[in-house]
Fold each of these.
Amino acid sequence: MKHLQVAVGVIRNASHEIFLAQRSSSSHMANMWEFPGGKIELGESAQQALVRELAEETGIEVTQAEAIGSADHTYEDVRVTLHFFLVEQWQGEPWGREGQPQRWVKQAELVAEEFPPANHALIARLRQEAAQLAN
Ligand SMILES: Nc1nc2c([nH]c(=O)n2[C@@H]2O[C@H](COP(=O)(O)OP(=O)(O)OP(=O)(O)O)[C@@H](O)[C@H]2O)c(=O)[nH]1
Ligand SMILES: [Mg+2]
């Protein structure tokens, strides 16, 4: 089975909102919401892939990113390892550069079921962190 290494960006603004994009109806995990990102190419580090993918998909230039863990998941047809980065510093304003719908969601209001299964543990972590900050 194919095993993809994927760099994924949790873009978070000063109001603790996170930038989400909707996957196209023709892609793997069609119509689900995701954190922008994509496959790490040969010779690239995860961080380099993150910077390239976020420029391609959202138009921003990432100026700082913090690795916040990874997740491994086997779908029916493909295995993925997601390398997550928290992005709080960038230049420009993120938008759906490839025509994908997008929205900002408060960290505490992320809904796991809207995301591919590989994201569920991270969503739980982010929600928990947001709940703790609110208390
Ligand atoms: N970008 C992204 N991909 C995710 C997430 N969760 C998750 O399971 N994936 C999976 O990771 C795999 C690769 O991501 P991708 O489709 O964004 O890759 P890419 O941008 O390089 O796609 P491309 O082939 O259209 O250039 C897909 O199978 C996708 O379903 C997520 O939150 N963000
Ligand atoms: Mg992508």
Note: The mean pLDDT is 97.
Amino acid sequence: MNAVIQQLKGKLIVSCQAYPGEPMLDPNTMAQVAESAVRGGAAAIRAKGLADLRAIRQRVDVPLIGLVKVGDTGVYITPTLKDCIEVAETGCEIIAIDGTRRERPDGRTLAETIAEFKAQFPEVLVMADCGSEGDAVAAEQAGADIIGTTLVGYSGERPKTTGVDWEAVDQIVAAVERPVLVEGRVHTPQVAAEAMQRGAWSVVVGTAITHPATITGWFADAVHNAG
Ligand SMILES: CC(=O)N[C@H](C=O)[C@@H](O)[C@H](O)[C@H](O)COP(=O)(O)O
């Protein structure tokens, strides 16, 4: 078992991302958020964008799961081999890439992408962001080291549930042997604990920890609806 994967077993991973046009879209800000998450107990940080990744790398010692987002539709999470290489060059232990069976913008299959990437970066792990059980099985066969439920509800294969899509999580956990990171719409500690009980290796939480505008909206709506 790879040491980094072992290190993440039963631990919380925090995703620190701000989006185009947002006030927190700033590498130094994201590095501060990441360091705060590590102080709170995050065993690893997931982050996007080369500048954010470089800034976070200088600030925290825990493993980094790096990605880039190219657009926000179709295959947009670290979509090409070139993107994989650029992310790995920032010093991440793990790269997160689109792990669906959809056509990739550079024409490579997922298996080709992983094989060519690993030829250059044998030490760097690949997390496949999947949207369904079928994706997860294919991604494992394609050589992914870690399976993420990241794209469940976003790739068109599964409906987007309000919280975690437990049916998809159960199917994926049962179908693959690789560690499954439950990621996407984990909004409370109780839900994170349930993910572990259902067989997750680790849980990745983004919005509910690191996206104040969304969290504020939850509270604002609750107050408004109760008033
Ligand atoms: C679908 C997609 O593009 N997900 C992205 C992947 O990196 C992020 O925008 C999410 O914040 C992340 O997956 C964590 O999920 P949540 O923020 O729901 O805890």
Note: Residues 212-226 form the longest helix (15 residues).
